[in-house]
Specification:
Length: 386
Amino acid sequence: MNPTTRPIYLDHAATTPVRPEVAEAMAPALAEDFGNPSSGHAWGRRARRRLEEARAALAAALGVRPDEVVFTRGGTESDNLAVLGRVRHDLARAVPPHVVTSAVEHPAVLEAAGRAAREGAAHTVVGFDAGVLDLDALEAALRTRPSLVSCMWVNNETGLVLPIAEIGAACRRHGIPLHSDAVQAVGKLPVGRGNAAVDLLTVTGHKIYGPKGTGALVARDFRTLRPLHFGGGQERGLRPGTEDVAGAAGLAEAVRLAVAEAPAEAARLGALRDEVEAGLLSRIPGARVNAGGLRRAPHILSLGIPEADSDTLLAALDASGVAASGGSACASGSNAPSRTLAALDPEDGAASLRLSFGRLTRGRDATRIVRTVAEAVERTRALAAS
């Protein structure tokens, strides 16, 4: 295909294609070892063996024990299980539950915390000052002895990297468990126990070239969680239902590859993002980088563009063969302002544009990306002014 007309996918933070290596790892469980891993016959035993091999491989990649891994159906479920599972554990013990989150969490955490509040929990939200998490406010919240703190590793809208090591150290001093949604961090930053004192960790497959509908919750102690679903004893009783062996195999291979390739891929993506960022700032008057000047993951570039409409801009880009987003894919179709951007800069009203880079993005695409986005912004502003 002509490189000047080839469509460019810049929405890797929303989802990614399945890698051939991942599909290959899944194939035997789909076609050969298809048994129910809870069955006692040969087919079931083979399926169970593949499931446990996947658990061990994922654990090794993240530097944890296999018995600390529970497979789920994705990042949202893992986040829900971490937050609501902990709250319901405390409620069952007649302990008043209290959840502390940052203001920029994924809806899977914030809405789970909202549901927890409706079930009787307290919910404290820690804000930001000039884009920096208010660690003093976090310290004050920790002194109230909450049930759980949940702070994401990398923000999915802006790429902002939260100070997980500092947050984990503070939680450890107070003896409070820390949950982190690491969906956007795996394969981009060093993630694991050796990098921060995290007690619960959320990962998913489809952000790292694995299958959709796969995820895992890593936990030091599953005894402090209650299940969200009922009907079986699978996955330590926390995720009942017949396990998706093929999905687990694909997730494990995707995590293994992502972690192994992270240093080189992060450097490549960071250089590409910086080149595109510099080009767009030079060509689009008034444009600025959301979370600019702060530590950001290498694969996300979030721009604030005044005098433009996000939906019109995205449509113009789509018509030009560029796939992008206004922010979180989970908020698609919503006209509500971004909670993340409001938390980082309450006074900002500019349209937001998220470009997220990955394996489908090539270095030679940078010039075309800059030109196409700049021209789309120019057309969008002209329409708004007419």
